[in-house]
Each structure stands twice: as structure tokens, then as C-alpha cells.
Write a structure and sequence with these properties.
This protein is α/β, with parallel strands linked by helices and 155 residues long. It is 49% helix and 21% strand. Strands 1-3-2-4-5 form a 5-stranded mixed β-sheet, sandwiched between helices. The longest helix is centred in the N-terminal third of the chain and has 18 residues. It is globular.
Length: 155
């Protein structure tokens, strides 16, 4: 009986560690290169991480769940574009985020864009697949909406 308990504990521990292994990029160029190689779209999460209540709610109800983590690891490359009030960002990340906010006409948070990134010699082009934000109903409702958007993605 003790061996079953140990095996069960180790299995649950490994699943918990695996679920926490999502990589969120803050550098769009790095994420775009990876997305092109993996033939996956980018998920651009525009957030005010330290002040936006709806952003925090979206993370708690959706992005921190095992369902989202599994979906994200299978379907997208994650990019967090943060606009904090208290936390300091590196100047190049702050400038990049401001440019991305303008490019995608983001006027409220949270905003989530799903895009296809195509690299050319000197820059990255983005094909907008669709956008979303906070969706009530937990991870399954959010993922269902995101999957509708991803139907527009072609490799």
C-alpha cells in the first residue's frame, strides 16, 4: 500500500511540474523565430500585470490552469507584452511593447491577439488571425474561442 502511495505522489508531482513548464517570451523577435520553426502561431498577451484586475483574473481562471497549459504547449508560442505601473521593464522591452501596442491598436487590457509571424530578411510581419480577452466560463470556454480563431491559421 505504501508503494502505491509513493507512485501516486510521484505521478502527481511530475504532472504538476510539467504543467508549470510553460515558457512565456517577452522578446517578440525571439518568439517569432521559434514560432516560424515550430509552425505555430503566436499568442500575444497584452497585460498590465501589476494593476489590471481583469488581466489577473484571466491568468488565474485560464492561463494558470492545466487545461490552458496543455492547450498552449500544443498550439501556440506565448508572448507576454506587459505594461506594468510598479515593475520596471528593460528599455528595449518597454519600447518593443509600446510599438506592439500601437501596431495592434490595443486600447484596453487584457487583449490577446493570435497571429502568424513571418520573418523576412530584416523584420517580422504579423498576420492577424483574431483577438480575444477575458472570457467568462473558465479555461474550456476560453480555449473554445481561441480554437475558433486558430482555424484561420495555415502553416
Amino acid at each position: 500500500m505504501k508503494k502505491i502511495g509513493i507512485v501516486l505522489f510521484l505521478t502527481m508531482f511530475s504532472m504538476a511540474v510539467q504543467a508549470q513548464d510553460l515558457k512565456w517570451y517577452d522578446n517578440v523577435d525571439e518568439a517569432s523565430t521559434l514560432a516560424a520553426k515550430a509552425q505555430k502561431p503566436l499568442l500575444l498577451f497584452f497585460t498590465g500585470s501589476d494593476w489590471c484586475g481583469w488581466c489577473i483574473k484571466l491568468q488565474k481562471e485560464v492561463m494558470f490552469t492545466p487545461e490552458f497549459k496543455k492547450w498552449a504547449s500544443d498550439n501556440v508560442i506565448l508572448v507576454e507584452l506587459d505594461y506594468p505601473r510598479s515593475k520596471q521593464l528593460a528599455p528595449e522591452i518597454k519600447q518593443q511593447n509600446a510599438e506592439m501596442q500601437q501596431m495592434f491598436a490595443v486600447s484596453g487590457y487584457p487583449t490577446v491577439w493570435l497571429v502568424k509571424a513571418t520573418e523576412t530578411k530584416s523584420n517580422v510581419n504579423f498576420e492577424q488571425l483574431g483577438k480575444t480577452g477575458y472570457v467568462a466560463g473558465g479555461p474550456n470556454a476560453w480555449i473554445q474561442g481561441a480554437n475558433q480563431i486558430l482555424k484561420n491559421f495555415t502553416k
